[in-house]
């Protein structure tokens, strides 16, 4: 029997606010355990939550970016469950009245575009973190760090519209790109600021009804999301082919063993006993607030990609690469405005600049070679002051040197010789030294001109302008 997979993703994005969603505690990552807590985080008696306004604005940005319907009145609810890292015994989330609903995103897989529906986007608080370590003396013990309690999240719940691990990876990549463009989340999956759970089921091809789903957790990279989904699809097919039944459960992905294991039975909404939080009034968004958020929206990646193709005449591939991140697109635009040579600038950014960024493990905004210096270097090439190969030497020098590009070219002795008189002399000398090759050229072997160009370049120690050398050679050989 042929099966198809049905996949939906639940993505949690930690919002990049300075303080938590319901108190003033810091959200900074990496602090010593249990140092960023207060009576509200710890759910001490009498402590009351106060909503962080920026959390709502950030959630609205994501709703607008995904073309979701904004619920101008929405409400927080209590989601009841009992874990050691959840001091209140419930999580403040949203249920019946989320802030955003019914949006969508377009993804591309192997050149094919597909629209993925978004069921809802809602605000909630994060839980703490339980730490299980094999090095503990008593291995039955765990530790709890409550610094993460109350860190603001948005949860983005997709429709079950994906049919493969590739589509799920493309969707997750697009969500991560969006939250970074919007500046609402750093998208770091290794640190847990972007987390993804996958709901996976299979059904016979052509069947309309859904199969029993399982939920995959603990996937800290897009590659692991792909591996886990592929694993689970194959496992479910094997179970059905062997005459078994799929059990609705939550599975933990083990990246070291490339396998999933049972964590617990899968809860349904009724298991959480949702009810409106009595300590928080409904959130009412007026037109002025929404207009302010809309005005603060950046140009989104799809729009920017299309503009790069139209405005700068870039190939679709270049535009796609340059708009992968807002930082890369900003760097390119800052440089191209000064060079007015879009394709050459794009080649440098996609080549040498990205290579240096990867090598130094730095974002483009923090590179020692700024967009302004790159523009100066490209202009020097365009003006014939330096060759392409020599420009790469200057680019390397800019990693550690602060001098202006023009000054650095002279200090390194790389300025190209474009003076007609000097080039005329060098060409005449090369031709005089190689009479046999001159005769060969005049007898029809036009490719010999490459030999003459190389000879002049060697004589000039690589400083001659190849274009001018070609022009002078062609003229002299025609005499």
Keywords:
479 residues, 20% strand, Arc Repressor Mutant, subunit A, three-stranded antiparallel beta sheet, nine-stranded mixed beta sheet, alpha+beta
Descriptive overview:
The chain has 479 residues and is an alpha+beta fold. It has three domains: 3-289, no CATH class; 300-411; 420-478, Orthogonal Bundle (Arc Repressor Mutant, subunit A), CATH 1.10.10.410. The protein contains 15 helices and 16 strands. The chain has helices at residues 53-65, 165-182, 222-241, 287-295, 301-312, 316-322, 326-339, 342-360, 371-382, 388-397, 405-411, 420-433, 435-442, 449-459, 466-477; strands spanning 3-14, 69-70, 73-74, 77-80, 90-93, 100-109, 112-125, 129-131, 143-145, 152-158, 194-204, 214-219, 249-254, 259-265, 275-276, 283-284. A hairpin with a 2-residue loop joins strand 6 and strand 7. Helix 1 (53-65) crosses helix 4 (287-295), helix 2 runs antiparallel to helix 3 (222-241) and helix 14 packs across helix 15 (466-477). The mean pLDDT is 91.
């Amino acid at each position: 029997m042929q099966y198809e997979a049905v996949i939906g993703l639940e993505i949690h994005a930690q919002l990049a606010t300075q303080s938590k969603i319901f108190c003033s505690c810091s959200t900074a990552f990496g602090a010593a355990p249990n140092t960023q807590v207060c009576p509200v985080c710890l759910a001490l008696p009498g402590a009351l939550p106060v909503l962080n306004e920026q959390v709502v604005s950030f959630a609205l940005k994501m709703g607008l970016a995904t073309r979701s319907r904004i619920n101008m009145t929405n409400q927080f609810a209590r989601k009841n469950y009992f874990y050691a890292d959840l001091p209140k015994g419930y999580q403040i989330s949203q249920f019946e009245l989320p802030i955003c609903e019914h949006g969508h995103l377009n993804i591309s897989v192997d050149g094919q575009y597909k629209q993925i529906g978004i069921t809802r986007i809602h605000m909630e608080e994060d839980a703490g973190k339980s730490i299980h370590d094999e090095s503990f003396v008593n291995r039955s013990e765990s530790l709890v760090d409550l610094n993460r309690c109350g860190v603001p999240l948005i949860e983005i719940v997709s429709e079950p519209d994906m049919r493969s691990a590739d589509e799920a990876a493309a969707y997750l990549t697009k969500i991560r790109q969006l939250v970074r463009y919007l500046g609402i989340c750093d998208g770091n999956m290794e640190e847990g600021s972007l987390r993804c759970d996958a709901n996976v089921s299979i059904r016979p091809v052509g069947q309309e009804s859904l199969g029993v789903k399982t939920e995959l957790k603990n996937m800290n990279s897009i590659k692991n999301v792909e591996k886990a989904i592929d694993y689970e699809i194959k496992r479910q097919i094997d179970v059905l082919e062997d005459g078994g039944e799929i059990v609705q459960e939550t599975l933990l992905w083990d990246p070291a063993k490339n396998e999933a294991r049972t964590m617990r039975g899968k809860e349904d909404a009724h298991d959480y006993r949702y009810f409106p939080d009595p300590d928080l009034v409904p959130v009412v968004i007026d037109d002025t607030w929404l207009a302010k958020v809309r005005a603060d929206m950046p140009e989104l990646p799809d729009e920017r990609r299309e503009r790069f193709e139209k405005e700068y005449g870039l190939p679709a591939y270049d535009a796609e690469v340059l708009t992968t991140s807002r930082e890369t697109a900003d760097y390119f635009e800052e440089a191209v405005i000064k060079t007015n040579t879009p394709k050459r600038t794009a080649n440098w950014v996609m080549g040498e600049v990205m290579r240096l960024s990867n090598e130094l493990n730095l974002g483009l905004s923090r590179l020692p070679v700024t967009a302004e210096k790159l523009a100066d270097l490209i202009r020097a090439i365009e003006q014939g002051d330096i060759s392409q190969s020599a420009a790469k030497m200057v680019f390397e020098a800019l990693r550690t040197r602060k001098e202006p590009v023009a000054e650095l070219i002279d200090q390194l002795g790389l300025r190209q010789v474009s003076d007609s008189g000097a080039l005329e002399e060098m060409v005449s000398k090369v031709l005089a030294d190689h009479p046999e090759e001159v005769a060969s050229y005049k007898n029809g072997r036009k490719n010999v001109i490459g030999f003459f160009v190389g000879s002049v370049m060697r004589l000039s120690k690589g400083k001659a302008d190849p274009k001018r050398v070609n022009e002078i050679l062609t003229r002299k050989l025609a005499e």
